[in-house]
Amino acid sequence: MPSPIRIGATMSATGAYATQGIAAQNGYLLCEQHVNAEGGVLGREIEFVIYDDESNSQRARELYTQLIVEDDVEAIMGPYGSTLTEAVAPITERYRMVHISPLAATSSIWEQGRHHLFMVLPPAEQFLLGLIDLAEEQGFNRIAVLQEDALFPRAAGAGAIAEVKKRGMEVALERTYNTGTEDFSDFLLELAAANVEVLAMAASTLDDFVKVRQQLDRLGIELKLFGNSGAVSQYHDALGESAEGDLGLSAWEPSLPNPGVDAFVQDYQARFQTQPSFHAAGGYGACQLLITAIERAGTLHSDALRQELLAMDHTTVFSRFKVDQRGYQTANQGAFIQWQNGEKVVVWPKSLATAELKLKPTSTEDN
Questions:
Q1: How far apart are the C-alpha atoms of 131 and 209, rounded to whole Å?
Q2: Secondary structure element (H or E) that encloses residue 99, with its range
Q3: Angle CA(182)–CA(186)–CA(189) in degrees, nearest 5?
Q4: pLDDT in tens, 208-234
Q5: Residue 367: pLDDT above 50?
């Protein structure tokens, strides 16, 4: 039997990005299982070689160099997130390895003349578009933007600010905070004093969203809408009823009409004993794209895979994939969810919505 095709990657199994990284790694591994159950590709099974990059850029650079130079993998898949993708992209470019990035979305990464890097997510600048759209629809005008000082959150925050201004709404407050910040109370008190109606928040880690919601509650600050750049089940797990009514960008939900979604969800739950997040579906869908490119090219040669990906208009379990000549995503806009009765429901865009937006009752309405 021929040797398996070894596909190298890192994922953040530990460190700040572990919540997202573990899910994305699971997506890779389930894709490996499904591809091999169907007989592999080019007559060979596939085998992922995945190292823990510890959510650390330097460690990721070391490991991608090791994968390509020492481990001699035949294909590469990307790590989690924009920060680590930006860190390793020069390495995959240097060795002319096609690099499908499952979960990086910052536009600047694709504006540096790279030839082998492909985006799967919606662009970061669009991550909070759904929240702004919903706010405008409800007649809310005073928006605050809170962003972590890291590559992806800065891009998402800048996109939100630009969208608010474009629509003639008011950016009542904007703030960039240092990674690792624990206390947001000064900002939140300033937000309350400014009569902000909607808070749009962009961060790299789930913990930051949870901290802000907890501190809003502790300070008794009520918002019409609070939305973040990454909706995951662990948000509700951490907050319980306090999460009700909050919103978040999800690049994927089980309710989306993508081919193979039901089987993916069922098999993911059976193997990993948890619901798949959009990070898991992103890993799985990015793997599907690589396999489709290999099948269509009939080879593992990077130039042939690159041409197939540039020409592709293909819908995976995760999303529709179509890119321009930079490898920059042009077909995926994601979805905005709201926590209702302990469940994530899609409330934007209307074409994909499974429920209507519900506004939180204020304390005066409760009395």
A1: 15
A2: strand 99-101
A3: 125
A4: 999 999 999 999 999 999 999 988 888
A5: no
Q: What whole-number distance in Å separates Cα of residue 306 and Cα of residue 104?
A: 18
Q: At what angle are helices 261-272 and 18-37 packed, to 10 degrees?
A: 110
In what helix (H) or strand (E) does residue 346 lie, and over which residues does it extend? strand 343-348
Q: Give the position of tokens 């806009």.
A: 333
Predicted model pTM = 0.85
Backbone angles phi, psi at 142, to 5 degrees: -95, 110
3-state secondary structure of 284: helix
Q: Is the pLDDT of residue 52 over 60?
A: yes
The pLDDT confidence band at residue 20, using thresholds 50, 70 and 90, is: very high
Chain position carrying tokens 């490898």 = 327
Q: Is 265 exposed, middle or buried (0-12, 13-18, 19+ CB in 10 A)?
A: middle
**Looking at residues 170-189, what average pLDDT do you find?**
97
What is the separation, in whole angstroms, between the first and last Cα of the chain? Answer: 72
- pLDDT (average), residues 305-331: 97
DSSP string across 42-79: TTB-EEEEEEE-TT-HHHHHHHHHIIIIIS--SEEE--
